[in-house]
């Protein structure tokens, strides 16, 4: 399967600080999705990006798809304890099968 | 109502045993998947079925056999369990083979398998 890497693997932030996770693919992607998995939970779909350079926002979360469609980022502004969890990107070359990234585990210290 | 439900939630068993995990979705989706999440949280696709037809079969030992009696159900049977099979197994569904590209995958709550 294709390789989708995420950095960092772990991130600890103080509540109120910002957080960013980066997703990098070895190949050009047609679509990229983001998921959140709470501790002990299951992945939950957040958003999909399709266009080169696309930026989407969901409240404090900003998602970006790179111009070359090989990378993506998720930025959280002013983290809250409810943001704790592992964030996964999932990329597809063809628009059907998606391969999950390695995930970034976020800990928010109150 | 639970959209994608898996049973059992926890499964502890001895090496060499055979076990099954069941999955059902009530979303009307026609594509279902099995994912394995290891201790490092890496999510790996194992199988995918579209309208009861196997469309993805990643490199998985043939001790693992999926079965889809209808498009709302996808079960996973594992023979001769090994220690390395310990993981969380997630069932997921999407609308259509390319449906994952529109509204993403809907995951079940997972089955934590521990082989001792």
Explain what the structure shows:
The complex is a heterodimer of chains A (110) and B (116). Chain A contains no helices and 11 strands. By secondary structure, chain A is mainly beta. In chain A, strand 9 and strand 10 (99-100) form a beta hairpin. The model of chain A has no long low-confidence stretch (mean pLDDT 94). Chain B is mainly beta. Helices cover 3% and strands 54% of the residues of chain B. Chain B is built from 1 helix and 11 strands; from the N terminus they run βββββββββαββ. In chain B, strands 2, 4, 5, 6, 9, 10 and 11 form a 7-stranded mixed β-sheet that branches. Chain A binds chain B through residues 1, 30-31, 33, 35, 37, 41-46, 48, 86, 88, 92, 95-100, 102-103, 105, and chain B through 35, 40-45, 48, 56, 58, 90, 97-98, 100-110.
Short description:
The complex is a heterodimer of chains A (110) and B (116). Chain A is mainly β and 110 residues long.
Percent of residues in helices of chain B: under 10%
Distance between the termini of chain A: 39 Å
C-alpha-based Rg of chain A, rounded: 13 Å
Strand content of chain B: over 45%
How helical, in percent, are the residues of chain A? under 10%
Poorly predicted regions of chain A are none
Strand fraction of chain A equals over 45%
Mean pLDDT of chain B: 91
User: What radius of gyration of chain B results from the CA coordinates?
Assistant: 13 Å
Shape assignment of chain A: globular
Largest interface: A-B, 25 and 24 residues
So how many helices of chain B?
Answer: 1
Could you give the order of the helices and strands of chain B?
A: EEEEEEEEEHEE
Please tally the helical runs of chain A, counting DSSP H or I stretches of 4 or more residues.
0
